[in-house]
Amino acid sequence: MSEPITHPKEEPPIAKLVRLLDAKANPPKGRAPDRGTLALLRAGSRPGSQHLAYAPLADLLNQAGAGASRLDDPVWRAIPTLFAWHRIHTSAPWCNFGFTGRRLAGSDRETFDAHFRRILACDTVDELLKLLPAYVRRAAANSVPINYVRLFWDLCEWRKSPEDAQGAKICWAKAYYSVIEKEPTSSVS
Q: Which range of residues forms the domain containing residue 20?
C-alpha cells in the first residue's frame, strides 16, 4: 500500500504579506530597511495621498498571493499601512488588539479605558479603521507588539455582520480587561 500524498500546509496570503512587510522593515543585519516603500505605505493612511500607496500595495499583495484585486478592500489596504507605522509584529496567537491595548494602558488603565471603549463602540470596520492608526502609532511609541495576522482576521470578522463584530469585540474586551498576574519578584538577601 502506498503512502498518501501530503502537501505542505500553505501559508495564508495574510501571513505571507506580514512576512514580506517584516523583511522590508526589519532586514537582516547589514541591509537597510526599505524606507521608500514604508513611506509610501504610510501615505496610504492619509486621504489626500492614498494613491501613492497603490503601487507598493499592489506589488506586496501580488507577492503574497492575494492579488492586486484586493486593493479595493480596506482591510487588506490597512494592514500594510499600519505595519509601516509600527514594525514590531508578534506571532503569538493569543495576542489580539485587546491585549495590545492592555499593554498600552499599563498599570494606569483608568486613563486608557475611555480610549479602548471608543474602539469597542465602533459599529463598522470603516469606523474602526479610522481610529486604529492613532493607537498603532501609540503602540510604536511604547514598543508594544501587534499581531497583524490576528488583527487582519479580527477586522474581517468585524465587517461580516453585527454578530461577528460583537464576537471580535468580546475577544478584545476579554484580553483588555483580564487580570494580569504580577511577575514574581526576587528577594535580595
A: 11-85
Q: 3-state SS of 106-137?
A: CCCHHHHHHHHHHHHCCCCHHHHHHHHHHHHH
Residue type, 21: L
User: Is the pLDDT reported for residue 187 higher than 50?
Assistant: no
Residues 6+ away with beta carbon under 8 Å from 36: none
Same domain, 116 and 174: yes
Looking at the fold, whether 103 and 147 belong to one and the same domain comes out as: yes
Going from the C-alpha of 154 to that of each of 95, 111, 167, 184, the distances in angstroms are 11, 25, 9, 33
Does the global pTM surpass 0.85? yes
DSSP string, 4-69: PP--PPPPPHHHHHHHHHHHHHSPPTTS---HHHHHHHHHTTSGGGGGGGHHHHHHHHHHHTS-GG
- Which residues on neighbouring strands pair with residue 146, listed in sequence order? 89
Is 2 within a domain?
A: no
Q: Would you put residue 84 in left (φ > 0), alpha (ψ -120 to 50) or beta?
A: alpha
Question: Are the beta carbons of 14 and 77 closer than 8 angstroms?
Answer: no
pLDDT, tens only, 113-154: 999 999 999 999 999 999 999 999 999 999 999 999 999 999
